[in-house]
Each structure stands twice: as C-alpha cells, then as structure tokens.
Amino acid sequence: MAVQWLTADEQRAWRSYLRTGTLLAARLNRELQAESGLSLPEYEVLVQLTETPDGKLRPVQLGRALDWEQSRLSHLLSRMLGRGFITRQDCPGDRRGALIELTGQGREAIESAAPGHVAAVRHLVFDQLDDAQAEAFGQAFEAILATLESDSGRLSRPSGA
C-alpha cells in the first residue's frame, strides 16, 4: 500500500498544531499554578466534578471523561485528597466501588481559579482569532473530535491506504 504523505501545507498545519498544543498546555499550567496553586490536571478533575449535579463521580467515569490512564488518575486523586479538594467514599450498592466527591474547599479552589484561567484562554487563543476564524476553529475541532470519539480507541486506516 502506498502512503499518501501530507502536503507541505498539511505538514505545516500539523506541526503548528503539535507545537501549539505543547506550548499552550504548558503556559496554561504555569499561569494556573502561579495564580491559584492548582495544576491544569487538578483543574480538569475539578471541572468534571463541578459539572455533575451532586459533585460526585466514580473514578472510572473521571478516567473516561478525561481519557487518562488509571494510574495517572489514581496518583492525582491521592494528591487532591491530601489537599482537601475531594473525598473518597464507598459507593452505595457496590462494595468494591468508590465515589469521588468535590469538597467545599475544592469548589472554592475552582471558583477562585476559573476567572483567571478563562482570561488566559481568551488571551492566548480567542483574542488571536477573528469571528470567522473562531467559528472555523470550533468546527474543525468538533469534526476531529467526532471522529476520535466514534473510533473509540481503535487504530484505523482509511480504506485503500
């Protein structure tokens, strides 16, 4: 099978995307830690918990939502438990299961961090785009996300490739 290499424009766009992703995550993490003491991964866990009606999720649900390995999530949850942002409870009806619950301290941490984080995202991303670019940005990532979610972890190649 012949490989269809990326065009020069596709290669440029792809490498820009990779470099931007790396630099953006690092910058947002540094700014979040400097302003609020939260790491970006802690912020991501707190977001997931605040978006549930009761502030509780099973670790497996958190892992799926964040697409993280179990060991990474387990280590982070242990640190967050030690910082008082979450509690771990037995899951009613499932003696082997656990629930991760947002504490008042965790809610205060994310509510304090969110305005600065949103301002950083706006400054670093959306302030750099006009309305048409922002619309195209959203559409492009929604299309890519739809493919990634429908493929759900399987390596696939287009037919004929």
Task: Summarize it.
This protein is mainly alpha-helical and 161 residues long.
Q: Explain this structure to me?
A:
A hairpin with a 2-residue loop joins strand 2 and strand 3 (about 95-100). The chain is globular. It has helices spanning about 10-35, 40-50, 60-65, 70-80, 105-125, 130-150; strands at about 55, 85-90, 95-100. Helix 1 (about 10-35) crosses helix 5 (about 105-125). It has a 3-stranded antiparallel sheet. It is mostly helical and about 160 residues long.
Helix tally equals 6
The helix/strand series, from N terminus to C terminus, equals HHEHHEEHH
Number of strands: 3
Low-confidence stretches: none
Helices and strands in order, then pairings?
Blueprint: H1 8-36, H2 40-50, E1 56-57, H3 59-66, H4 70-82, E2 86-91, E3 94-102, H5 104-124, H6 131-151
Antiparallel strand pairs: 1-3, 2-3
Helix pairs in contact: 1-5, 2-5
Name some characteristics of this structure.
mainly alpha, 161 residues, 3-stranded antiparallel beta sheet, globular
